[in-house]
Amino acid sequence: MILYHYWRSSCSWRVRWALALKNLSFETVAVNLLEKNALSDKLSNKNSMLQVPSLEIVAGQVLCDSVAIIEWLDETYPDTSPLLPKDPLARQKCRELTQLIASGTQPLQNLPVLSFIESLGGSRQSWAKDVISKGLAAYESKLAHWQTEGPLSFGPAPTIADLCVVPQIYNALRFDVDLSKTPRLKNLYSHARSLPSCVKAAPEAWENI
To answer: For the residues of 30-94, what is the DSSP string, one character each?
Structure first.
């Protein structure tokens, strides 16, 4: 498999983490999101949206969208580190948290949106901080309401929800979001960042690769 990714992309981090949890070997192609030519040159025949991550599973067969890729990995390799709870209701809650980040938070603070906000005279920092703060507060509230057990979102093992929220908290720290207002997520992030699979997938492990 070949993963087209950017080292600091939160969506790329999600998939790298899933691959690490599944103990799957893969090659990588680094795509610099800050260089438009790189996007076109490396992704024009792989991803019609010119986005990362994209996972080429066989020659000419490319999977796109981080959540869809992770669900494919989980369905294809179900016996190693399952990424969704077995209980149907818990699975729904896990997917709900996943989409809270993947659809309701991260897309609103990604690079194209921040560039557009800036073009309108707005502040990238203020916009991203507000969007992320609201998303994390909602996530924290759901965990409290459902009374899920930690140290991660649904117990001790990472789920697809954790694969989304941990990179989002990384972004939160970049934009100076106050994590004291979401204490469970603050503790979740600290625990997750100590896991070998997360360390292997984290941005700092890929910055110079």
So the answer is: E--TT-HHHHHHHHTTT-TT--S-EEEEETTEEEESHHHHHHHHHHHSTTSS-SS-SSHHHHHHH
Domain extent, residue 190, equals 88-197
Residues 14 and 69 in one domain: yes
Kindly indicate the confidence band of residue 140, based on its pLDDT and cuts at 50, 70 and 90.
very high
| pTM score, whole prediction | 0.95
Residue 99 covered by a domain: yes
Residue bearing tokens 């998939």: 15
pLDDT in tens, 41-80: 899 889 988 899 999 999 889 999 999 999 999 999 999 9
CATH of the domain at 133: 1.20.1050.10
Instruction: Check whether residue 134 and residue 39 sit in a common domain.
Output: no
Tens-digit pLDDT profile for residues 66-75:
999 999 999 9
- At a CB cut-off of 8 Å and minimum separation 6, what does 11 contact? 51, 52, 53, 66, 102, 106, 167
Write down the number of H helices and E strands in the chain: 9, 4
- DSSP three-state, residue 190: helix
d(CA 55, CA 27): 10
Q: What is the pLDDT of residue 124?
A: 96
Q: Select from 171, 195, 177, 197 the least CA-distant residue to 8.
A: 171
What's the pLDDT at 39?
A: 83
